[in-house]
Prior knowledge:
By secondary structure, this protein is an all-beta fold.
Amino acid sequence: MEVEIKVPDLGEGASEATFTAWLKNIGDTVQAGEGIAEIMTEKVNLEVESPVSGVLHWQMVQPDEMVVSGAVLGIVRAE
């Protein structure tokens, strides 16, 4: 099953963020709750966690791209 990695709620007043880095590469095994990517708002840097355990299958954004709450960053194939 493929599960989307989404930008979490950025909080009050923040409507967009900058995608800064992937912490895992395509094909890497990830655990549920493990940091998989980083985003940055004007106020804070956030680590985006994998929603499930599995393998990182797809990366849909690259560093320096702007993203909004709920945007899909990538796909994890669940175990």
